[in-house]
Amino acid sequence: MNEKNIFDIISKKWWDKKNICQPLHIINNIRFNYIKSKTNIINKHILDLGCGGGILTEKLAHHGAKITALDKSKELIKIAKSRLIFSSIKIDYLNIDIINFLKKCQTKFDIIICMELLEHIENKQPIINLLKNILNENGTIIISSLNKNILTYIKIILFGEFIFKKLHKNTHIFNKLIKLDEIKKYENKLKITDIKEIKYDSIFKYSKINKIPKMNYILTLKHVE
């Protein structure tokens, strides 16, 4: 089963806070607060790459952001769009391949967020390079991803997917994970201004920000000349 099919399968559980997607809901406030701490979101044009069913997207929109959000999963975009029917917020949801979108995009964004996406993509560098082209001069990119190390493999893949089965098998492919040091190689015209860790405790069901990134890092990139 490929990763796209996995996300299509779990799409109907995306907004169930007590099911397989519970961690997404628990870390959502942490992600949102981190973004707000790094940049003003009110009336800003935000691009949400790999938005899933819109958990973070909706929260940003409710707090005044103007959002374009996209995901490769057709089912997840259906779920996200269905939630707008009885909502006052407006979000431009797109079911499209990310690389194709970035290559053709003529719009400039103030903020680009990329949460838990890079670890599902084979070749990361083209994406990072394309993000530079659609970021406003004083723009901000915020990326969260799983660090490629033995700790991540044991806790997320071995225990999370194969032993305790809290995630679908092969949700994460270890060889696709990206080391934090690799992100730093892509800093041409972008500068990392902050790096933290999103700590998630699966036993006590809570999340917090740590200063030292070990498994799940979140970082800020600023546009520089």
Automatic annotation (TrEMBL):
Broad EC category: transferase
A Pfam family: Methyltransf_31
Domain Methyltransferase: 43-147
Keywords annotated in UniProt: Methyltransferase, S-adenosyl-L-methionine, Transferase, Ubiquinone, Ubiquinone biosynthesis
Superkingdom in the source lineage: Bacteria
Enzyme Commission number(s) from the entry: 2.1.1.222
GO biological process: methylation
GO molecular function: 2-polyprenyl-6-hydroxyphenol methylase activity; 3-demethylubiquinol 3-O-methyltransferase activity; polyprenyldihydroxybenzoate methyltransferase activity
Protein name from the UniProt record: Ubiquinone biosynthesis O-methyltransferase
Organism, scientific name: Candidatus Azoamicus ciliaticola
Gene name of the encoded protein: ubiG
